[in-house]
Specification:
The protein is of the alpha+beta class. It has 4 helices and 6 strands. Strands 3-4-5-1-2-6 form a 6-stranded antiparallel β-sheet, with helices on both faces. It is globular, with a radius of gyration of 14 Å.
């Protein structure tokens, strides 16, 4: 299913992760993110959910982030998993979001998740970093 996301123009890679920084599955040519980045993706979804609950909107289902180097879709999945889709800046995010909404975790998901690469930065520094703007 992840490979079908790559058929959308502008989609570079897609990953499924759990909240412990384990890479469950990956598609695309990009190197998988480090364990620290995977945990940070979960922390971002968790913070957005907390904001939504406190503002009366409920849990966060997905986020689309616009970065200097492109777009990232973060989508919460059952069992504390998340889908991360990296896209070029010009990708049709409506199409990518619609496709991502149909993604289901495989019942035959590996019981031993693949380990993401070692963290290349201090996660504590990333959580307290100030944006460039």
């Amino acid at each position: 299913m992840l490979s079908s996301l790559l058929q959308h123009p502008g989609v570079l890679s897609a990953f499924v992760t759990d909240d412990g920084g384990h890479l469950i599955t990956a598609a695309g040519e990009a190197m998988p993110p480090s364990a620290g980045v995977l945990v940070l993706a979960h922390a971002t979804l968790s913070a957005a959910s907390e904001f939504g609950r406190r503002s009366g909107s409920g849990d966060c289902i997905e986020l689309v982030q616009h970065h200097e180097g492109g777009l990232v879709l973060l989508r919460g999945l059952p069992h504390r998993h998340a889908l991360i889709v990296r896209c070029e800046a010009g990708a049709n995010m409506d199409s990518v979001r619609s496709h991502a909404a149909t993604f289901q975790l495989s019942p035959a998901a590996p019981t031993q998740p693949r380990r993401a690469s070692a963290s290349a930065f201090n996660l504590g520094d990333a959580l307290h970093a100030m944006p460039a703007w």
